[in-house]
Amino acid sequence: MTASADVLIIGGGVIGSSIAFNLLQDGFKGRILVVERDASYQFASSALAMGGVRQQFMSAVNIRMVQYSLKVLQQFPQCQFRQRGYLFLATESNCEKLQHRYETQRSLAAECEMLGIAEVRRLVPELRSDDLVGGLFGPKDGYIEPRATLRAFRTRAEELGAVYVSDEVRKIEKECVYANQSGRIPAGRIVIAAGAYSGAVGKLAAVDIPVAPVRQQLFRCALPRPWPYEFPVVIDPGGVHWRSSPNDEIVIAKTDPDEPPGFRFGCDLDRFHHDFMPPIVHRLPEFRDLKLVFGWGGLYEMTPDHNGIIDRIPDIEGLYVAAGFSGHGLMMSAATGKLMSELIRTNKFETIDASVLSFSRFARNELFWDEAMI
Ligand SMILES: Cc1cc2nc3c(=O)[nH]c(=O)nc-3n(C[C@H](O)[C@H](O)[C@H](O)COP(=O)(O)OP(=O)(O)OC[C@H]3O[C@@H](n4cnc5c(N)ncnc54)[C@H](O)[C@@H]3O)c2cc1C
What we know:
The strands form three sheets. Strands 1, 2, 8, 9, 10, 11, 17 and 18 form an eight-stranded mixed beta sheet that branches. A hairpin with a 6-residue loop joins β17 (about 310) and β18. The protein is globular and about 65 Å long. α1 packs parallel to α6 and α1 packs across α9. The termini are far apart. The protein contains nine helices and 18 strands. It folds into two domains: about 5-50 and about 145-210 and about 305-355, FAD/NAD(P)-binding domain; about 85-140 and about 215-300, D-Amino Acid Oxidase, subunit A, domain 2 (D-Amino Acid Oxidase, Chain A, domain 2, 2-Layer Sandwich). The longest helix is centred in the last third of the chain and has 18 residues, at about 330-345. The protein is about 30% helix and about 25% strand. The protein has helices at about 15-25, 45-50, 60-75, 95-105, 115-125, 145-160, 200-205, 270-285, 330-345, and strands at about 5-10, 30-35, 50-55, 85-90, 115, 130-140, 140-145, 165, 170-175, 175-180, 185-190, 210-220, 235, 240-245, 250-255, 290-300, 310, 320-325. The chain has about 375 residues and is α/β, with parallel strands linked by helices. The structure holds flavin-adenine dinucleotide (FAD). Flavin-adenine dinucleotide binds near residues 16, 168, 196, 300 and 325. Flavin-adenine dinucleotide binds near residues 11, 44, 48, 327 and 328.
């Protein structure tokens, strides 16, 4: 069967699916094909993520994007959004920085508050707090179930008429792509939404998309006893952070700043024992009896300034990119889909001014920094 599309999206992860869903929800009448090479999503970041959602960023665009996504997530019960909050713990060494973040975030209308030590202890009474002075808390933040969120966006997109094609795009030309099984697929517009693979997919069109894959590891552990409440996302100043998971489990993360770029998956048990466990046990001594259930690695899709790209590709008419969210794409997926829908339908952003997330900023060497990346 020869397919053709008015909009062809390469990558059916949460970003590609949200773009398809938003286009159709916004009344786009053309045919939308989403080409996804792996229906199991085994190596898709959307399925391997932690699920954190926070409006605590240091730039208007990132805050607004998450605020927009938050409203959408509240309307999608399938995503299992737990608004338990995001708690950055403050010690003497980082409290000035967190105070500065609080002031900037508030000036940009992010919902957050500085907590004293008593309030921190009310949220998580079991914390070791003799070295803490308080915390920065986002009460509306929380976490979603990543795979359920991916499924929710894909299902809604399909219900509205998007067609998912199980195939791998091998080449991109003006107004068409070539895929392994389907051969040539004519397409009026083509969107690269291939997550950490977007740099590689860009090469199929001879475009340099500066997105590099960098592994991030997560570990799911059983709590030593039934816990009477769900944790917020708790971020220790040293970087280890955790959130609750169903059935009295937690998911733990800690970014390794020395992880080299590359398509690597799997987890490193040595890291769990030597890098994750000591700081998390220091922070919550009962965690010494955590039982490791499962560990895995997935790919962050890193740009040079750790912010996403939502744009047309200049010079190649009809080619767009939505990628490079550098470990924050799940929480920004609803807004990204909306913004790409606007760009395709109306040629401009309407809901949020996302022009700082341009593709050309890298070539101009005008990188866009947000100090709130973890
Ligand atoms: C361990 C980990 C923890 C994370 N934690 C969080 C978090 O707490 N909060 C948050 O917001 N974000 C988090 N992220 C980031 C988030 O998961 C990503 O930003 C987001 O999922 C990106 O979605 P995507 O659809 O762009 O990419 P993906 O989900 O990777 O989807 C891209 C798809 O493109 C397909 N594809 C690639 N090449 C081709 C081709 N040539 N032809 C056809 N299909 C192709 C792939 O098969 C894949 O399914 C985390 C990521 C990881 C790995």
